């Protein structure tokens, strides 16, 4: 009975951990905490939601009202934290430099497909994980990391302007950790697979036949 306490608390932590991690990940995404810096249609984007919003505005997939609704929580927190003001709903697209996103070149998106696709998965995964933790946010975060690594280390695409160079904030590591822990694993199934299956020895089976 004495050893049941730590085991039960550890099991409870294992059950709650995906939900805690998924909610931290949701706050990182929808409050638009800067994770990286990369060139996009609006200029320079620092969050997956900013990258996704640029593409949504440019492609007319979502109505403008829906994109504003996604951007407003992060804009609200940023405005209150900086100068204790409230962002204007009408001027939200101007604040994020999205008014000319449709006229921007699509070459930027084609050069950074991993970051673009990863941002889509990260935003969708953060929302879905509130209902049921899954692998979508982890997959999106890994895509973003690979896209940033490819551009910064391999130099693809080539960038000669230091002001537009790729930069990764320390919060990106927190997002990566939360995306991994937001995946809900069946620990009983994992432990059962980890246990070796006992097989009868050949000598004993032969002895029984004799």
In short:
With 210 residues, the chain is mainly α. The chain has 10 helices and 3 strands. Helix 1 crosses helix 6 and helix 2 packs across helix 6.
General description of the model:
It is built from 10 helices and 3 strands. With 210 residues, the protein is mainly alpha-helical. It has one domain. The protein has a 3-stranded antiparallel sheet with strand order 2-1-3, covered by helices on one side. The longest helix has 27 residues.
Instruction: Indicate how many domains the architecture comprises.
Output: 1
The computed structural class is mainly alpha
The overall strand count is 3
Q: Could you give the distance between the termini?
A: 46 Å
Query: Uncertain segments of ≥5 residues (pLDDT<50)?
Result: 186-194
Overall shape: globular
The amount of helix comes to 55-70%
Largest sheet: 3 strands, antiparallel
Let me know the average pLDDT.
Answer: 78
Q: In percent terms, what proportion of residues is strand? A: under 5%
Strand order of the largest sheet: 2-1-3
Along the chain, the helix and strand elements come as HEEHHHHHHEHHH
Keywords: Membrane, Transmembrane, Transmembrane helix
């Amino acid at each position: 009975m004495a050893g049941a306490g730590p085991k039960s608390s550890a099991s409870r932590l294992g059950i709650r951990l995906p939900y805690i991690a998924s909610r931290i990940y949701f706050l990182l995404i929808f409050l638009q905490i800067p994770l990286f810096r990369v060139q996009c249609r609006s200029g320079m984007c620092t969050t997956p939601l900013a990258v996704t919003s640029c593409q949504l505005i440019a492609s007319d997939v979502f109505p403008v009202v829906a994109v504003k609704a996604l951007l407003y929580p992060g804009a609200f927190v940023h405005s209150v934290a900086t100068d204790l003001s409230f962002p204007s709903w009408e001027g939200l697209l101007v604040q994020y430099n999205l008014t000319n996103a449709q006229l921007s070149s699509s070459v930027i998106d084609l050069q950074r497909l991993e970051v673009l696709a990863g941002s889509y998965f990260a935003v969708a995964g953060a929302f879905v994980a509130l209902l049921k933790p899954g692998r979508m946010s982890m997959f999106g975060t890994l895509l973003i990391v690979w896209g940033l690594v490819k551009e910064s280390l391999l130099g693809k695409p080539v960038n000669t302007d230091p002001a537009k160079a790729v930069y990764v904030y320390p919060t990106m590591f927190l997002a990566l950790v939360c995306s991994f822990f937001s995946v809900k694993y069946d620990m009983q199934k994992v432990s059962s697979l980890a246990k070796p299956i006992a097989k009868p020895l050949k000598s004993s089976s032969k002895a029984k036949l004799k």
